[in-house]
Amino acid sequence: MIVKQTEFIKSATKPSHYPEGSLPEIAFAGRSNVGKSSLVNVLVNRKNLVRTSSTPGRTQLINFFQVNDDFMLVDLPGYGYAKVPLAVKKEWRPMMETYLSKRRNLRGVVLILDIRRTPTEEDLQMLTWLRAFSVPPIIVITKCDKVSKNERARQSSIIMEKLQLKKEDLNYFSALSREGKDAVWARIDALLAPEAAEAAEIPQDPAQLDPVID
Question: What's this model's pTM, rounded to 2 decimal places?
């Protein structure tokens, strides 16, 4: 995809605040400080569309950005940061649960992992949840420039074992070298294709599944 224009539309906490219309949506999710903002900024060729922060856990809203006239890019709150107040965590869980399980515009979720870290139970729960709701995940492994080839291979094996993934499921990315940018876009384009929308299943009732965000 050639990105000509990216525009912030609005922030939301509940369905009544979501943007109206039928544009498909691709959401981005991951633990705090995993490199989500850097990934989004590189994909849309903007330096500060999504602000990076030295304080993980600051993003507390669902943020919608329109890319060209093609789709909405949705920045979800980072999860798993221990210092976030409990009251804020309790607000995040139903907010994200409702969006991921109810939003019919949603075509897929880019789930972001740090190559240097072992996936946590929260990452596993998020992936399990996406599968249960038939929301296609795109697994992006960030910060690949910070490890050697041998370390990348070792960490990839750990990630695949922990999350029950195959090698072809992993998309490697570096905000520094731009490695993986085109591959990630190819995955997004595939989910935005009309035939992918037609194949999307109706989400299940969230009451039937266990909540996944602590």
Answer: 0.85
